[in-house]
Automatic annotation (TrEMBL):
It comes from the Eukaryota. Belongs to the TRAFAC class translation factor GTPase superfamily. Classic translation factor GTPase family. IF-2 subfamily. The chain holds residues 617 to 976 of 1092 of the full protein. Residues 14-230 form the Tr-type G domain. Transmembrane segments: none annotated. This is Eukaryotic translation initiation factor 5B.
Length: 360
């Protein structure tokens, strides 16, 4: 049925920061996502987490609950955190990083046992060129020989309780990774030792299996965003929206999954999206999101929304979307807009982004 379950915006009227996960294959991107959205769900404490299309939404309340052991007294001014499930969207990531700057910040996952790998460096270069701020998750700490597990514990607490040998190996591997980053021209440091935040990138040791360091990672992301991106995160009415995927959906035909970065979309809005054979002009037939997690078994059905406010991931059903291009922008046609002009600028942008992608 039609629901209106949009998070209430706070006094400052900030939107949720959008975060993506990058790194070498097998570094643990998928597992880390599973871990940050999954642990509490299994314990029946889903606390409003919703897995959306290609993204997971964490309400601020949930983040506060999960980070309370850090005694951060976290004043969370953003409504939540939207984490994009990039592992499945590699090509999109490429396209995105050359243009629209969709993500506000990123998690760069590095395998503690392997250090920097070819795709770590590739990701690093994408982040640099997109000017995207990021936090390094130094993952798989549980693989240190003799590591004692403290599920979902803040990382300092977990490290403090390890044997001397484990600490020695940890420090040795950490130093190696810091040196490797230095070779890439980047200063990095454990986040709780970092006195030059902004110039020196933060490292958060994590285990995606047992959850150590996950509270630290969540809190750091949100606090960092709040501290340095107020202007960027201030909600604006101007729609900023990017296509993540084009999918045929049973019952809805060809749909587009989009990330709504800013503004609000309504059922019935006339839209223009970039298409393979020119601009596509259509109108939104349905705005869809999956059911909240506990209702996941209700397969193939979605919640319908009359309107949705940023930042969210949404499935849009509309006619004529067959040739829509992932990575292209979506525009909403206003009453004073010239559709032809919008169409032209949409395509100019698509061509610009595509040609840059081809060269890489
Ligand atoms: P991705 O390719 O970056 O998405 O990596 P995956 O999340 O698929 O993880 C690759 C492999 O590493 C899987 O077998 C995971 O179970 C394992 N893995 C991921 N994170 C951890 C971790 O923190 N500790 C351990 N021991 N294994 C991990």
């Amino acid at each position: 049925g039609v629901v209106d379950d949009q998070p209430v915006q706070n006094g400052q009227n900030l939107r949720s920061p959008i975060c993506c996960i990058m790194g070498h294959v097998d570094a643990g991107k998928t597992k880390l996502l599973d871990c940050i959205r999954g642990t509490r769900v299994q314990e029946g404490e889903a606390g409003g987490i919703t897995q959306q299309i290609g993204a997971t939404y964490f309400p601020a309340e949930n983040i506060r609950e999960r980070t309370k052991e850090l005694k951060a007294d976290a004043k969370l001014n953003v409504p939540g955190l939207l984490v994009i499930d990039t592992p499945g969207h590699e090509s999109f990531t490429k396209l995105r990083s050359r243009g629209s700057g969709l993500c506000d910040l990123a998690i760069l996952v590095v395998d503690l046992m392997h250090g920097l790998e070819p795709q770590t460096i590739e990701s690093l270069n994408l982040l640099k060129s997109g000017n995207t701020d990021f936090v390094i998750a130094l993952n798989k700490v549980d693989r240190l020989y003799g590591w004692e597990t403290y599920p979902n514990a803040p990382i300092r607490k977990a490290i403090r309780q390890q044997s001397k040998d484990v600490m020695i190996e940890f420090n040795m591997r950490l130093t190696q990774v810091i040196t490797q980053f230095k070779e890439q021209g980047l200063n990095t440091e454990l986040y709780y030792k970092n006195k030059e935040m902004g110039e020196t990138y933060n490292i958060v040791p994590t285990s995606a299996i047992s959850g150590e360091g996950i509270p630290d990672l969540l809190l750091l992301l949100v606090q960092w965003a709040q501290k340095t991106m107020i202007k960027r995160l201030t909600y604006s009415e101007k729609v900023q929206c990017t296509i993540l995927e084009v999918k045929v959906d049973e019952g809805h035909g060809t749909t587009i999954d989009v990330v709504l970065v800013n503004g609000v979309l309504h059922e019935g809005d006339q839209i223009v999206v970039g298409g393979m054979q020119g601009p596509i002009v259509t109108s939104i037939r349905a705005l869809l999101t999956p059911h909240p997690m506990r209702e996941f078994r209700v397969k193939g059905t979605y919640l319908h929304h009359k309107e949705i406010k940023a930042a969210q991931c949404i499935k849009i059903a509309a006619q004529g979307l067959d040739h829509a291009i992932p990575g292209a922008s979506l525009y909403v046609v206003g009453s004073n807009d010239d559709i032809e002009v919008i169409g032209k600028s949409t395509m100019a942008y698509v061509h610009k982004v595509m040609s840059r992608t081809d060269k890489s």
